[in-house]
Recover the amino acids of this structure.
């Protein structure tokens, strides 16, 4: 399939999953397109505060191998997702936006993350949130402020500001 990275990241998740299952799109290609987008936009926006690029690449290669073997695929097979930084992810820093937890790495996934993984999703990173997801602006003492992509002088606001900016900008 000859699509640019910009084309890939703008496809609906259901379409990406369909193309992956049909062997017309590689999970590694999808991951690379999203990593390029993150590299392009995230430094100015600070939406994704912990990036798990190597873990995601390993998972994307495994997802691609599963497709090629003809394994049964989950509905999110090969799709990269980011998780709000108040949701525990095994082996990936979860800070809750709180300095007391700046180095916290859970041993187990929260149930929602476990279900995403079982559905075939690839965990790409964590998104910014106010401390313990409370507050009207997406800012904390661990990672600082997330910026609104249409006016970086403003906050995207709220506990899911990092997630909102990541989704709005196709990161």
């Amino acid at each position: 399939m000859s699509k640019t990275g910009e084309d890939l990241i703008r496809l609906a998740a259901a379409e990406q999953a369909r193309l992956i299952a049909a062997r017309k799109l590689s999970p590694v290609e999808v991951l690379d397109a999203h990593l390029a987008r993150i590299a392009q936009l995230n430094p100015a926006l600070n939406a994704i505060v912990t990036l798990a690029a190597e873990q995601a690449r390993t998972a994307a290669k495994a997802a691609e191998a599963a497709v090629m073997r003809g394994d049964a695929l989950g509905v999110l097979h090969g799709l990269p997702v980011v998780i709000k930084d108040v949701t525990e992810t095994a082996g990936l820093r979860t800070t809750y936006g709180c300095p007391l937890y700046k180095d916290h790495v859970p041993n187990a996934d929260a149930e929602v993350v476990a279900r995403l993984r079982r559905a075939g999703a690839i965990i790409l990173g964590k998104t910014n949130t106010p401390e313990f997801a409370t507050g009207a602006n997406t800012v904390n003492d661990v990672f600082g402020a997330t910026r609104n992509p249409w006016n970086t002088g403003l906050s995207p606001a709220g506990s899911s500001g990092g997630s909102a900016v990541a989704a709005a900008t196709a990161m």
